[in-house]
Amino acid sequence: MKEKFTGESGAGLVKITLNYFGKADRIEIDDLIFKKTDKELISDLFVAALNDALNKFDIAVKEQMMKIYSKRSPADLLPPGIDGFKN
C-alpha cells in the first residue's frame, strides 16, 4: 500500500495529505482562507481535514487487512506449535 490519503474541509479550502504510514505529508491552504476567516474557523477546518484524511487511511488499512486475512483459515493465524483448530 503506497498510496496517499487526502482529507479536505471547507469545500477544499484546507487539504491535508497523509503518506502510507499515516503521517501528515502535505498541507494545502487556499489563499482565500486568510482573507475571510478567523483563527477559530481555520483551526476547525484543519481538524476536519485531518480527521477526513485519517478516516480514509483507516479504511484503506482495514481493506488491506481483510484482503490478507480473508485468504487464511483460523489455524493459519495461530503461533507455531499451537494447533487448536487443526484436526
- What profile does the largest beta sheet have? 3 strands, antiparallel
Count of discrete domains: 1
Rg calc: 20 Å
Distance between the termini: 35 Å
Structural class: alpha+beta
Helix count equals 2
Q: Which sequence of strands runs across the widest sheet?
A: 1-2-3
CATH class: Alpha Beta
Global morphology = rod-shaped
Q: Report the portion of residues in β strands.
A: 15-25%
Could you spell the SSE succession in H and E letters?
A: EEEHH
What's the mean pLDDT score?
84
What labels would you give this structure?
3-stranded antiparallel sheet, 87 residues, 41% helix, Ybab, Chain: A, 2 helices, alpha+beta, single chain
Describe the fold and architecture.
The chain is an alpha+beta fold and 87 residues long. The chain has one domain: Ybab, Chain: A (2-Layer Sandwich). The protein contains two helices and three strands, in the order E-E-E-H-H. A three-stranded antiparallel beta sheet has the order 1-2-3. A hairpin with a 5-residue loop joins strand 2 (14-18) and strand 3. The protein is rod-shaped, with a radius of gyration of 20 Å.
List the helices and strands and how they pair.
Blueprint: E1 5-9, E2 14-18, E3 24-29, H1 32-36, H2 39-69
Antiparallel strand pairs: 1-2, 2-3
Short description:
41% of the residues lie in helices and 18% in strands.
